[in-house]
Amino acid sequence: MALRSWQSNWNELAIYFKYPQEIRTLIYTTNSTKSYNRLLRKITKSKSIFPSDYSLYKSLYLTTMDIYENMKIRL
Question: What is the mean pLDDT of the chain?
Fold first, then answer.
């Protein structure tokens, strides 16, 4: 299924590989940043009110640590 997807979309995918490695790395970095922000929004959206700025910072910090631990496991 994945191979068929690559074959049917090769014209669009080939454009990506024409970029220099530095640009492709930036694209990956942007995707990672978007993913990280999405996970932080998921945490802050589930709680409508934080009692203080400190509680918000702490929640974001703990979420960041969880994300980091999950990344280490996958690597």
Answer: 85
